Amino acid sequence: MIGLTLGGVLNIFGDYILVRVFHMGIAGAGLSTTISQYISMFVLMLPYLQGKTQSRLQLKYVTHKPEILNRIFTTGITIFESTRIKLTFYDGIKYYICDVW
After folding, report:
1. Alpha-carbon distance 70 to 99, whole Å?
2. What is the secondary structure of the chain as a DSSP string?
3. Cα(75)–Cα(83) distance, integer angstroms
4. In this structure, are residues 68 and 34 in contact, taking their beta carbons and an 8 Å threshold?
5. Backbone angles phi, psi at 62, to 5 degrees
6. How much is the pLDDT for 58?
7. pLDDT tens track of the chain, all 101 residues?
8. What is the pLDDT of residue 30?
9. Cα four-point dihedral sign 4, 34, 25, 23
């Protein structure tokens, strides 16, 4: 919970600093989101890296069974396509708005 909250708060302040103070616009918002997500991921991974959890991250538990890899790939490709469609849509909106303004 702390990691997710920290990521959200950092994103809010990062957005303000990069967009308003440094005048980076949408690129600043994207950069702020990326940085806050990496910091949030690190905070969430910290207990695993320090060995303070009951579960461990070890390569010997990674599976190579085709049916499981197929499920992972199928889920991942669906999310990838959804993201690609959204980005294409947003890119089209960007060009329309830039022409209007």
Report:
1. 44
2. -HHHHHHHHHHHHHHIIIIIIS--THHHHHHHHHHHHHHHHHHHHHHHHTT-SSS---GGG----HHHHHHHHHHHHHHHHHHHHHHHHHHHHHHHHHHH-
3. 13
4. no
5. -75, 130
6. 80
7. 888 999 999 999 999 999 999 999 999 999 999 999 999 999 999 998 898 988 877 888 888 899 999 998 888 888 888 888 888 888 777 777 765 55
8. 93
9. positive
Residue the block writes with tokens 């994103």: 11
Question: In residues, how long is the chain?
Answer: 101
Amino acid (1-letter code) at residue 101: W
